[in-house]
Specification:
Layout: E1 8-9, H1 11-26, E2 28-32, E3 38-53, E4 56-63, E5 68-73, E6 76-82, H2 83-99, E7 105-106, H3 108-116, E8 132-136, E9 146-153, E10 160-162, E11 170-176, H4 183-187, H5 192-201, E12 205-211, H6 214-223, H7 227-241, H8 246-256, H9 265-279, E13 297-301, E14 307-311, H10 315-324, E15 326-328, H11 333-336, E16 342-344, E17 347-353, E18 356-358
Parallel strand pairs: 2-14, 9-13
Antiparallel strand pairs: 1-7, 2-3, 3-4, 3-8, 4-5, 5-6, 8-9, 10-18, 11-12, 11-17, 13-14, 15-18, 16-17
Helix pairs in contact: 1-2, 7-8, 8-9, 9-10
Length: 359
């Protein structure tokens, strides 16, 4: 977004501003368990960093003696703001977001407070998956790490974990049990769900071939040598057997046991590692080395406005949350070029798109 001044946004974008105000107001952030319930593990905040533009970061340093935040842009002081007024602004913004019915909206009073904090846009500048950076006081570890976090909000529509991205997230399947002559009439069916039902009614079956993206395929192999096949089968189960949640797809896959594990555990743990990798920065379209973690976890805005975090310190709870609270969904068929039958060398194929959203 660069230095472009942006005053309007959707609920997700305003939720990021809400998190920013709430953290300034509470100057502490608490961990949560796999059900989004707060634990007794809380981290005092020492600094907050928010991208302002290219090579420019605004820094907010907590001054405990006065319960204020010192706002600096580089070495220059911008202003001082109290925790109390930040908390009040967070409360007011929460009510605005909750009551909002428009897709995109401006909140002039909120924007005025953002400007006082040195921000020109409601969306923080970012070139990767982290939305905000916090320096936390970790008493247990005995140091004060600086961590990047991705913000996910339940104040509007449930957020996405993995967005569909054209060929990068398409999977290829051979369709058996159809004739080439049937392709044209089937491709006239507009809705993906209706197409899949028509295929089922004709006795056609889908057989996974490969991931359409070389980059995503290589990324998945860093997680597990079988990850491509397992994810391909899960996507097939979603479209063909309506296994919407990650948990239900794994349950059905484990029953079929294509890899002969003889138990659900290996399938479940592999998918948890995949979800964690996506949460911490792995994307389908960018080469990944299996190690780099762009973020240290999620900051989650619950439906009631409570702000909690999953940190890599709480890896088990974080992975369980990702596993229990995610589902597949169908992205735009026209934008991502999938769910159309085509013929190659006498065989019929179809591409299906991967997208994962929280539920």
């Amino acid at each position: 977004m660069g230095n472009e001044c942006t005053r309007s946004g959707n609920k997700g974008e305003w939720s990021e501003v809400y998190v920013f105000f709430r953290l300034l107001g509470e100057h502490v952030i608490c961990s949560c368990d796999e059900r989004l319930e707060r634990t007794n593990q809380c981290y005092p905040l020492l600094k907050i960093e928010r991208g302002k533009g290219k090579n420019s970061v605004l820094t907010y340093t907590y001054v405990e003696e006065t319960d204020e935040w010192l706002v600096t842009d580089g070495l220059a002081k911008v202003t001082m703001v109290t925790s109390e007024e930040s908390a009040k602004e967070a409360d007011e913004l929460l009510e605005l977001i909750r009551c909002e019915t428009k897709r995109t909206v401006e909140y002039p009073k909120v924007y005025k407070f953002l400007q006082r904090l040195g921000c020109d846009s409601i969306k923080a500048e970012s070139t990767n998956k982290k939305d905000i950076t916090l320096q936390i006081c970790d008493i247990r570890a005995g140091h004060n790490p600086t961590c990047g976090f991705s913000i996910k909000s339940y104040l509007g529509k449930a957020p996405t974990l993995l967005n569909s991205s054209g060929e990068c997230t398409n999977f290829l399947y051979e369709v058996r049990g159809l004739t080439v002559a049937e392709v044209v009439s089937l491709n006239s069916i507009e809705k993906t769900k209706d197409l899949m039902m028509a295929l089922r009614n004709r006795g056609a079956t889908l057989h996974f071939v490969d991931c359409c993206s070389d980059v995503f395929r290589k990324n998945l192999r860093y997680i597990d040598s079988s990850a491509v096949n397992i994810l391909g089968e899960m996507v097939r189960l979603y479209y063909c057997e309506d296994k919407k949640t990650i948990e239900s797809a794994i349950g059905t896959l484990a029953e079929a046991d294509p890899l002969h594990y003889e138990e659900c555990g290996p399938y479940r743990e592999m998918v948890k590692r995949l979800l964690m990798a996506v949460a911490l920065g792995m994307t389908p379209g960018k080469p990944w080395d299996g190690k780099t973690e762009v973020t240290s976890g999620f900051i989650v805005v619950k439906p009631d406005g409570d702000v909690v975090t999953y940190h890599v310190y709480n890896r088990d709870a974080f992975m369980q949350y990702l596993y229990l609270c995610t589902r597949f969904e169908k992205p735009s068929r026209s934008r991502h070029h999938y769910a159309r039958l085509f013929e190659v060398d006498g065989k019929i194929y179809i591409k299906l798109a991967l997208q994962i959203r929280f539920r």
